[in-house]
C-alpha cells in the first residue's frame, strides 16, 4: 500500500522531510491517512503537501488536524526549498505563522 511504502521508506532511510502530491481526488484521502499514521507512529518528520487537487484550506481542515505543527501546504514547487529549510531548522517563527494560519 502507498502509505506503508512511503512511511516505511522514510523511517528506514531517516528522511528529513516527507512530501506527498495529490494529482487525483482519491489521493486527498490518502494524504489524510498518511498524516494519521504518522501521528500514530509518533513521527516528527515534517510533511509537505502539494499537488493539483489540494489547497491550503484542504490542508488546514483535513490534514493538519491529523498531524499538527509539522504539516505544511506548499502551493508551488519553487517554494518547497524555503519551506523545507524552515521545517528542518524548526524555525519557531515560521512554525508559529503556519499554526496561526491553519488553526
Summarize this entry quickly:
With 103 residues, this protein is mainly α. The protein contains 5 helices and 3 strands.
Structure, explained:
By secondary structure, the chain is mainly α. It is built from five helices and three strands. The chain has helices at residues 2-13, 26-40, 56-63, 80-88, 92-102; strands at residues 18-21, 47-50, 71-73. It has a three-stranded parallel beta sheet, sandwiched between helices.
Keywords:
three-stranded parallel sheet, 5 helices, 103 residues, mainly alpha
Average pLDDT: 89
- Write the element-wise H/E pattern from the N-terminal end onward: HEHEHEHH
> Quaternary status of these chains?
single chain
Rg measurement, Å = 13 Å
Shape: globular
Could you give the count of β-strands? 3
What distance separates the N and C termini?
31 Å
Strand percent estimate: 5-15%
Which structural class should the secondary elements be placed in?
mainly alpha
Which ranges are low-confidence, i.e. pLDDT below 50, for 5 or more consecutive residues?
Answer: none
- Helix amount: 40-55%
Mind describing the biggest β-sheet? 3 strands, parallel
Q: Which strand order does the major sheet show?
A: 1-2-3
Number of helices: 5
Topology:
Blueprint lengths: L1 H12 L4 E4 L4 H15 L6 E4 L5 H8 L7 E3 L6 H9 L3 H11 L1
Parallel strand pairs: 1-2, 2-3
Amino acid at each position: 500500500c502507498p502509505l506503508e511504502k512511503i512511511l516505511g521508506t522514510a523511517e528506514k532511510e531517516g528522511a528529513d522531510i516527507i512530501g506527498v502530491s495529490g494529482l487525483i481526488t482519491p489521493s486527498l484521502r490518502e494524504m489524510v491517512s498518511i498524516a494519521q499514521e504518522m501521528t500514530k507512529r509518533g513521527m516528527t518528520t515534517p510533511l509537505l503537501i502539494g499537488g493539483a487537487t489540494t489547497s491550503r484550506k484542504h490542508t488546514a481542515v483535513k490534514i493538519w488536524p491529523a498531524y499538527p505543527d509539522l504539516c505544511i501546504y506548499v502551493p508551488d514547487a519553487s517554494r518547497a526549498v524555503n519551506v523545507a529549510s524552515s521545517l528542518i531548522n524548526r524555525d519557531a517563527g515560521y512554525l508559529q505563522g503556519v499554526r496561526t494560519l491553519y488553526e
